[in-house]
Amino acid sequence: MMVVLRALHELTACWKKIGHYNMKCRWIPGTGGYRESSMLNDPVHSIGDQYSIIETDEAIASANVVKFEVQLYKARDEKYLLDLQRVQGPQFLFLDLCAALLAQLQVI
User: Is the dihedral of CA 66, 73, 105, 107 positive or negative?
Assistant: First the structure.
């Protein structure tokens, strides 16, 4: 899960931990995400923390917000299955996010 969280961090996505292997996430394309916000008020957002969602007026007002859930499953041996489910937002932006996440994870 730490590898997935690092990849989300690199894509400037925000997340909230629901369970040990389940996260609610938000991504706004073309913004600095929480990296820019964290410089202003230094909220809790490190990879090991329980949550990293920072609500800003820009994030709430944007029509390009993609909200999604991430669920990690362990298969046999040392194989893992990552399930991404779009909750809200444009479908094509979600597909762009999925492609970027897979590239960040060095799967493709």
Answer: negative
